[in-house]
Design a protein that fits this description.
Blueprint lengths: L6 E5 L4 H12 L4 E5 L6 H16 L6 E5 L13 H13 L4 E5 H4 L4 H8 L3 E8 L7 H9 L5 E7 L3 H9 L7 E6 L4 H6 L8 E4 L11 H7 L10 E7 L7 H11 L4 E7 L3 H11 L1 E6 L13 E2 L1 H6 L4 E4 L5 E4 L2 H10 L8 E5 L3 H12 L3 E5 L3 H11 L2 E2 L10 E6 L21 E6 L8 H8 L3 E3 L1 H17 L5 H20 L1
Parallel strand pairs: 1-2, 1-8, 2-3, 3-4, 4-5, 5-6, 6-7, 9-10, 9-11, 12-14, 15-16, 15-18, 16-17, 18-19, 19-20
Antiparallel strand pairs: 11-13, 13-14
Helix pairs in contact: 1-2, 2-3, 10-17, 10-18, 13-14, 13-17, 17-18
């Protein structure tokens, strides 16, 4: 066993002082730490850091399992020195208190075994192989070759361009002892979180600086996803979309699971190809998922059945995986719209403009129409606006008319202004002739559109209101229990507040 503590913090910085700061932070969350010596700017900084590590060991300050890594550029690292110098640094790391060293096969294959034994014999070796091209043809062969040696541990890291490929990487660790499987790439992020559940000996997470694509921060791995607590029968849920890094759904839903002490986890899935995700549902044991842009309408073609309201809307944001892998769809955006607006304006008889005509706009249009509001639709593509207006018995409004019209409410149902493009607004000040502006975007909490409306003394409603309402409705559909809405709301607001503070800095 490499270590009893299986979440491995990755410490990587350009100078010894910053490296040590990260070590101290890592020790607050885990007792297994990889030291990326190749990230240090030069030999002198490596020496300074190892001297600090050696002193801490003598003072009994850093009891942990340390893995020294000094990866050369050939294997995806930053070290530009010779192989001899690389081995010297690793030997010094072992003398400074590292239990393990990670040596890439590019170096180990170029060195006689007796040389490695003389220089590094006091440490335990993890042999690592990195595949940076998406072809996995040689993965199984390399894994089998390494497993057939007398190495202490092996690590296989491979770039993945699909969820199915990431599952193939995780399978390399099935039934094997001291094998670390590392799917790389943004698409593979969920597989990184599930790696320990799938049998990997370690799951890597950076303290601060990402050292590979698709990494999850140490804090998120430990607290948000609780990766070291996941088991084979842990229920897996997620949100699918493209992009997906902006989503706070994992914060919202995982807090719900934690408050109710449920054995479940919610993950973000970057999905460019719906069929790839659907093929991963069975192998990953996915019990349900949320659907966001751009898949809310396309997912309908892959469902086995659908709630009548979702079918009428023509968009689904919630899917339950039933027995036999059958997919059943719902739309809780509808609920979110009503909960966000009903407390602010009387909907029956009000005149509301929806800007946009996609999946989210359809949910808003049906919610407002069912509540007795007069629905108007304006969109960049007027053909879509007219089609949606016909379905809900509303009216399509050309963009130039907005300056001359008055509405009780204007709802932005487009992604314009969403993080990271927060400096944009879908409408101008002169377009906002209304009592209330509701922006479905919740990140940032105060969008450019809402700021423009506030400057005109127009009441505003943040997308946080709808986000929490639709999300808690999803949670209840999946679990069959009452959602801890207050705790879930606080978690989202706290995350947004922290994000805003970081932006100010």
């Amino acid at each position: 066993m490499i270590s009893r503590v299986k979440i491995c913090a990755v410490v990587a910085a350009a100078d010894a002082r910053s490296m040590w700061t990260q070590v101290r932070r890592a020790l607050g969350l885990t007792r297994t730490i990889e030291l990326r010596l190749d990230w240090l700017s030069d030999d002198a900084e490596i020496a300074r850091f190892l001297a600090r590590l050696r002193a801490s060991q003598r003072a009994n300050l850093a009891r942990a399992t340390f893995i020294a890594t000094c990866r050369r550029r050939l294997a995806g690292g930053k070290f530009t020195g010779t192989i001899a110098k690389q081995l010297v640094h690793l030997a010094e790391a072992i003398r400074a208190g590292c239990d393990w060293y990670d040596l890439e096969i590019e170096t180990s294959s170029a060195c006689p075994p007796e040389v490695l034994d003389v220089l590094l014999g006091e440490g335990r070796q993890m042999a690592s192989a990195h595949f940076f091209e998406p072809s996995h043809k040689n993965l199984k062969r390399v894994a089998a070759d390494l497993a057939g040696t007398r190495l202490d541990a092996i690590k296989i890291a491979a770039q993945c361009n699909s969820l199915v490929e990431s599952i193939d990487v995780l399978r390399l660790a099935h039934g094997r002892k001291n094998v670390v499987a590392v799917p790389m790439g943004d698409v593979a992020l969920p597989a990184r979180v599930l790696a320990l559940r799938e049998g990997s000996a370690l799951a890597y997470a950076p303290v601060q600086n990402a050292t590979a694509p698709g990494q999850v921060t140490l804090d998120a791995m430990k607290h948000l996803y609780r990766a070291d607590k996941l088991r084979r029968n842990t229920r897996v849920y997620g949100v699918i979309g493209d992009p997906i890094e902006h989503s706070l759904s994992p914060v919202l839903q995982n807090v719900g699971f934690q408050v109710r002490n449920m054995d479940a986890v919610f993950l973000p899935f970057l999905v460019r190809d719906l069929k790839d995700f659907l093929r991963a549902i069975g192998p990953l044991g996915i019990a349900g998922f949320s659907v966001t842009i751009p898949h809310k309408e396309a997912i309908l073609r892959h469902l086995d059945d659908c709630d009548p309201m979702a079918a009428a809307i023509g968009a689904v944001n919630t899917v339950v995986v039933r027995g036999g892998g059958k997919l059943y769809g719902y739309n809780t955006d509808y609920v979110g719209v009503l909960r966000a607006l009903e407390r602010r304006i009387p909907l029956r008889g009000s005149r509301a403009l929806i800007f946009g005509a996609g999946g989210a706009a359809r949910a808003v249009a049906f919610a407002l129409a069912e509540s007795g509001a007069v629905v108007c639709i304006c969109a960049r593509r007027m053909k879509q606006a007219k089609a949606l207006a016909r379905v809900v018995g509303g009216e399509a409004v050309e963009r130039p008319r907005l300056r001359r019209e008055f509405f009780d409410a204007i709802v932005n149902a487009t992604p314009v202004g969403m993080y990271p493009h927060s400096d944009r607004a879908p409408l101008r000040a002169e377009d906002l002739n209304c009592r209330l502006v509701f922006d479905l975007i919740y990140r940032p909490r105060s969008t450019q559109l809402l700021q423009i409306a506030s400057r005109r003394d127009i009441e505003t409603v943040s997308g946080v209101e709808m986000f929490v309402a639709q999300g808690t409705a999803q949670w209840e559909i999946w679990t069959g229990e009452r959602a801890p809405e207050s705790a879930m709301r606080r978690a989202v607001l706290r995350a947004l507040h922290n994000e805003e503070k970081m932006a100010v800095r």
